[in-house]
Queue: 2 jobs
Job 1
Amino acid sequence: MRSLQLAAINQLLLAEVPTPEIGTGEVRIVLQAAALNHRDHWIKQGQYAGLSFPCTPGSDGAGVVEATGEGVDPVWVGREVIINPSFDWGDLESTQGPRFTILGLPRSGTLAEKIVVPAVQISPKPAHLSWEEAAALPLAGLTAYRAVFSRARIEPGERVLITGIGGGVALFALQFALAAGAEVWVTSSSPEKIQRAVALGARGGFDYTTPDWAKTAIATAGHFAVIIDSAAGPGFESLLDAAAPGGRIVFFGATRGNPPLLPSRKVFWRQLSLLGTTMGSPRDWTSMLGFVSRHRIVPIVSDVLPLPRFADAFTRLERNDQFGKVVLKP
């Protein structure tokens, strides 16, 4: 079968590899679509712990079960499924355990024609989604769901700010918060992305590259009960300013690095909650799929390319100009 292989840092190639064997408790899936995440970009650049070569990246995928291993009900054969990329979460709902990993490293990922995963990692594909839409959902959808509901506990009517709109997690956070009845605003350096977010239901947006954008946001919309962020870095203090007293700031990344300064008085005097989050538990996964199905949420897909055009797909991701997920078809 064909599989995308990272042979060395920044050296991706499409190779013929043996079809993976099925172990006890596992299933083999013929993948119909897979999606990229920024995690794949960082793995490609060698910026991820535990990297070894060769490896097959890819955390997101959906397909048809081809075969089952010992101990797995054969009723799964022929069923359309979606893969939960959050492996070995652990016993606590509050945090992942020491054995937690994400599909695509160290385990071979979804950028291939077939994949073997434990049967506990698969769920029926939401019926209203195409293969491309289903493949776009897992990692970003799960991360956003935990941020919005398990951590921020967004309530109907609350004012929410989502930073860096256009990426997969931010878009799911927008869709989930809107479905929950929140008033949602966004930030971006791109006026086009802000307008596209407005078309999806956001009330408006702000260019975070402009001086004093937080003051503009407060004057326009008021303070925000919840802020969901993936950048951190030098702009983090502006989020503290934009948060309402008693507000919650949930962050799932630090693409701009660590904040150079954390003004503690702004946090404790205004009783702000800073909430870290990553991926999600099996309960988050099940709840997310149910929420998506009940509200008929459709993931935003930016581009769909055949697997041999993987270089173009990674280039689009690395330029960071996509609006939604980049999907590859094996």
Job 2
Amino acid sequence: MVSNAMRIWLVAGAAFSAALPVGLLVWWRVTRRAKLTPFFVGALTFVVFALVLEPLAHRFFLLSDSALSRALNANPYLYMLYGGLAAGLFEETGRYVAFRWLIPKRRFPERDTAVSYGIGHGGVEAALTLGSTYAMLLLVAAYLARGNEPAALATVGGQAAALASVTQMLASLTPGAVVLAMLERGGAVLLHIALSCFVFLAARDKRQWTWYPFAVLLHAVADMPAALYQRGLLPLGVVEVWLWVVALYALRSARKCYLEAMDP
């Protein structure tokens, strides 16, 4: 079902998702002598706010049987607005909480803290989305190649529909799709580093609080096209290009914050 060449591409994608944050962290540590704690706090904060708290909101706004959830699910543009704003609000609030109370200024006054945190936040997202997905695909492909369908079924949670979806994904997967996914994760990590600089400044200087809502809105704008892709209204290539456009704009703005607005 899956060629050896395709398996190599999947391994490369999974390895990339781990090597990207580790490589960035090592480079940042060597060049700036940055502390490691903000990296781990960033990773933990992403898990709590994006993977635990945000899905609770989705249960209420998207999955409950209410007039609001029906309206959001029926209208792709309302769904796009909700999805983007939910992601921006939860993740940027997590950043703000981390910089105010989990990474206290008296212990981590350096502006390098913002970048270290961003690498951790974006890095764990890459590992848990791209890396774990490709690892699961490799495992399912190996089981199916051996004729061990029960093991493949257990890998996807025992759902026959889920296994059928994964099987279809494996059949349609191409090297180009893997490369595109790696590029998308690269852009996302850079965006998270930039957003961390904005929120760091908002959390450390009350006079600069407007950077927090700016980060929420910028995060939402970056994520909104993905919601339209999920509804079949935008091609994936447009979504990826848009993410990089927003990421590069954010990096340019964050560089000014990092170099000029923050204390050295």
